[in-house]
Specification:
By secondary structure, chain A is α/β, with parallel strands linked by helices. Chain A is 44% helix and 16% strand. Chain A has helices spanning 6-18, 29-45, 52-70, 75-82, 86-99, 101-118, 124-133, 149-157, 194-197, 246-251, 260-263, 274-277, 349-357, 360-383, 388-401, 409-416, 426-436, 442-473, 477-482; strands spanning 20-26, 139-142, 166-167, 181-185, 203-209, 236-238, 243-244, 287-295, 299-304, 311-314, 324-327, 337-341, 484-488, 496-513, 521-522. In chain A, strand 13 and strand 14 form a beta hairpin. The two termini of chain A are 33 Å apart. In chain B, helix 1 (21-35) packs across helix 2. Chain B contains nine helices and 16 strands. The chains are: A alpha/beta, B alpha+beta. Chains A and B meet through helix 1 and strand 6 of A and strand 3, helix 5, helix 9 and strand 16 of B.
């Protein structure tokens, strides 16, 4: 993102002082009926709704219902964009007849309603968008679900009255003034508050279904001493804020029965289910400390958080070579873009390093596995079949008692992991190989591991250089708009790499099986 | 800046425009804080804005300008005494008027007409040995300097190392720090280095006097941020990147006036580390940790607030902004 100039910052302040937030309420009785039926059904199920069967059945129903309520697409196009598998859904309905006969009729009716809506070639949002667009000027539209951005953008391009409208993201609305008019599809509560409190447009149109409550208005955020005398506060001031259009404020009082959160498809909740995301693993499985990053589009990924680990990111707020860099987990920030393998998950450096090593790769990897195996099996023989973390604590204590190394158990734990190539110091390497009973091979293995290390460095450098080249020659607008982007490198250089925007980072670390690191996880039910 | 006909301008598409009100607001905040006492308690000012661009840089400018202006008669007297104590032959520079800087060598001081004078020789004997007599009122125009002491026959006074009309207009013409002679830390800026560098080093500004374009410069000329100066230049403010490394003990200890946090991230990481200096926290409504920073400030307001003089500009907060200021007890 280009840094703001004094002129562009001035324009932002101007937008903030003159912006009007205008609410538009739209109707669709059949969609309202479906939404109410769905809510009643979920309430009826209660806690059972979290069961596997109901999650599988209701997940796609809720997702498509939400798509109808949040995307300016003809319902038929929205159904296609949401990628609903009707066959699977019908199978769930048939299964329900056997498993939960009491709920079958209601579920079947919901699916029927949804199919009926999916055949419609209209959306309640489109007419209003077209009317707003007639006012002229640059027009940006913000969606709640960035995964629908491309489908809606394509629809705008082929719709005469909306062909100049473009999709923008809340991330893009952090920069300078963006357009004359913005429209958000859905209640204010579905979007970051800055879209309205720090608007990058002269008018923000909020187009929402009439039956969703929307009470947002600008107000003070600091605690302050209120002055009973009516004089202005000595220590607190508020500048001119965006105004709420007077006409729409009145309409907001009309009866509404849905809260904005009622319609959001459930996601694996933050802070509760991270351990399940880490997957089930046995005590003997190799685990490493990892941090969970929530990513754009209701996805997530674990990044390694052990000593010395780092993750490759794109940071669009930086310039030149700093745009692509490796950072430790503790330095990751929301807004950075995590780079992950597009398919297969896991590390993208190691496969390229193997290519660099060529015919030697297999031998070197086997040597790498061999010394670790010897270390682990010797430790297990000595201290019993305990988990890797306890094992490493015993080895560390043993190395210290034999005066071989002062390494902490966290170091030993890392050296045992398949991620580690070799310790940083040769003395430590000799110490653990002495412990493992293969001291005589220390020099030979140290040099062999050095080759892997160099190949990794070359691979990391090559990927970073290629990405920098791609970034220099490609517009990053799709990345900032959709929160994700695929970068095509050649097959020899690691295939394709995807960047995903970090939306949140869980504060605490988890023990995660090493193969889960860097894997893209779907958070949506 | 200090004198009203001097105004800062910024450039846009080849044209110069006077600084907008929001920028002046930040400068005023810095100036007001610089004048506020910080013995028993310090002032915490939190400013929420729709964009934090340039906010921290302009607050720091206000602090530095105000600090330079606060050199009063007492400091002139003290400086005069110091010059008196320097041995004859000491290297100095002498600035007879703004924009003109001469290398000089101190001669024996003199008493004449019941007044004490410091004597500064600026020409070699071969050139005529021109010597200026400087009394206490102009003492700050003479500053100890590191140069060979070898004087030329003639001096035009256009020494680039010591002459910067942009700075002279903003700070006064005899400021030892801007002359490159002494370092100090008036304030610390905590934020993202790339962003602050763009604002402080790469954004052209100019000084207009009575409406006429006078001199060009950048904020760095005045702020002299330690990370952006060369080894031979003096500094006046410190940059603390909001990355992984905490601020050095030197910066924690030596910042005299205030700490300016450019964004929530640095404030949440290092906000508790400075115990006595004023704090200005500039929060951008669009940034990731905005809500967390608001909670932290509200918590400090409700728990730490003490009575005392607070200062806010008379005008309203900038558009889309909200400002809270309070005093909190200083930890000694």
């Amino acid at each position: 993102m280009t840094p703001l100039t004094i002129s562009s910052a001035t324009e932002v302040y101007r937008d903030a002082s003159r912006c009007e937030i205008i609410r538009h309420w739209v109707d669709h009785p059949a969609l309202a009926e479906f939404s109410r039926s769905l809510r009643a059904f979920v309430q009826l199920l209660g806690d059972d709704a979290d069961d596997e069967f109901w999650r599988r059945s209701l997940g796609p129903i809720r997702r498509l219902g939400f798509t109808f309520c949040s995307a300016p697409l003809p319902f038929s196009a929205a159904a296609a964009a949401a990628g609903i598998n009707w066959t699977k859904l019908h199978r769930q309905v048939r299964l329900c007849e056997h498993l939960f006969p009491g709920a079958h009729e209601a579920l079947a009716k919901l699916v029927q309603q949804l199919e009926g809506l999916s055949s419609e070639s209209v959306s309640p949002f489109i007419v209003t968008l077209e009317q707003i667009n007639q006012q002229g000027g640059e027009f940006g539209v913000v969606l709640r679900n960035p995964r629908l951005n491309q489908a809606v953008d394509d629809f705008f391009a082929r719709t005469e009255n909306l062909s100049n409208a473009r999709i923008v993201s809340p991330t893009q609305l952090r920069g300078g003034h963006l357009c004359n008019m913005l429209a958000v599809i859905g209640p204010c509560g579905w979007f970051p508050e800055h879209v309205f409190s720090a608007p990058r447009a002269i008018a923000v149109h909020v187009i929402s279904l009439r039956w969703i409550r929307d009470t947002w208005k600008p107000g003070p955020i600091f605690l302050h001493e209120s002055d009973s005398s009516g004089k202005r506060s000595r220590n607190h001031r508020i500048g001119a804020m965006p105004s709420i259009g007077a006409k729409t404020r009145l309409e907001n009082n009309s009866s509404t029965d849905f809260l904005p959160v009622d319609l959001l498809p459930p996601i694996l909740s933050f802070g509760r289910n991270e351990r399940s995301l880490a997957g089930q693993y046995s005590a003997s499985e190799e685990t490493v400390p990892a941090r969970l990053c929530h990513l754009s589009g209701q996805r997530a990924s674990f990044v390694a958080a052990y000593d010395g680990s780092s993750t490759l990111i794109i940071d669009t707020s930086e310039t030149r070579n700093s745009t692509v860099r490796r950072v430790p987990a503790g330095e990751l920030e929301p807004g950075n873009y995590l780079l992950l393998r597009t398919s297969g998950g896991g590390d993208f450096i190691a496969p390229l390093a193997d290519q660099i090593m060529g015919d030697l790769a297999e031998k070197r990897r086997s040597e790498q596995a061999e010394w670790k195996q010897r270390l682990i099996s010797t430790a297990a023989k000595m201290f019993g079949s305990i988990n890797r973390r306890e094992l490493s604590a015993h080895v560390s204590a043993e190395l210290q008692s034999r005066n071989l190394s002062q390494a902490r158990h966290a170091n030993v734990h890392y050296w045992m992991s398949s991620k580690c190539i070799r310790p940083r110091k040769i003395e430590d390497f000799v110490a653990i190989l002495t412990f493992a009973g293969i001291e005589e091979r220390s020099q030979e293995l140290w040099e062999a591991m050095g080759e892997i290390d160099r190949a990794h460095k070359r691979a990391g450098f090559a990927i970073r250089r290629l990405l920098l080249h791609r970034i220099a020659t490609t517009s990053l607008e799709p990345l900032e708009r959709d929160g994700e982007m695929v970068f095509e490198l050649s097959d020899e250089d690691g295939g394709t790499i995807s960047a995903f925007q970090i939306t949140d980072i869980v504060g605490e670390d988890y023990e995660v099986p090493i193969q889960r690191i860097g894997v893209l996880l779907e958070m949506e039910d | 800046m200090g004198e009203s006909p001097v105004k800062l301008y910024f450039e846009d598409s080849g044209e110069w425009y006077s600084l907008p009100e929001w920028a002046e607001y930040f400068i005023t905040i810095g100036k007001l804080l610089a004048a506020a006492p910080q013995s028993e308690s310090r002032i915490v000012t939190a400013i929420v804005v729709p964009t934090r661009a340039f906010g921290a840089a302009f607050v720091s400018l206000g602090m530095v300008v105000s600090d330079a202006a606060s050199r009063d008669q007492a400091s002139k007297a003290a400086h005069f005494e110091r010059l008196f104590d320097l041995p004859p032959g000491s290297s100095v520079i002498y600035r007879p008027k703004p924009g003109k800087t001469l290398k000089g060598v101190l001669q024996e001081p003199e008493e004449s007409d019941g007044k004490l004078w410091v004597r500064v020789q600026v020409q070699s004997k071969e050139g005529g040995g021109l010597t200026y007599f400087v009394d206490e009122s102009k003492a700050l125009q003479v500053q100890p300097a590191r140069h060979s002491g070898k004087l030329p026959k003639k001096q035009a006074g256009e020494n680039l190392r010591f002459t910067n009309a942009f700075v002279d207009k903003l700070l006064g013409d005899a400021d030892p720090v801007q002359l490159g002679l002494r370092s100090k830390l008036v304030c610390a800026l905590v934020g993202r280095k790339t962003t602050l560098e763009h604002e402080i080093r790469k954004t052209p500004l100019s000084v207009h006097v009575n409406g006429d374009h006078h001199a060009d410069g950048v904020l760095q000329d005045v702020l002299r941020v330690n990370r952006f100066v060369t080894e031979t230049q003096s500094h006046r403010s410190a940059l603390v990147p909001s990355g992984a490394k905490p601020p050095s003990s030197e910066v924690l200890k030596n910042v005299e006036m205030g700490v300016v946090f450019d964004g929530a991230n640095g404030f949440l990481k290092w906000g508790e580390m400075w115990h006595r200096q004023h704090q200005v926290i500039i929060l951008d409504r669009t940034e990731a940790y905005f809500e967390d920073a608001i909670s932290a400030i509200n918590s400090r307001f409700s728990q730490n607030r003490v009575d005392g003089e607070i200062v806010l500009p008379e005008c309203e907060a900038p558009p889309g902004g909200e400002v809270l200021t309070f005093r909190e007890a200083v930890i000694k």
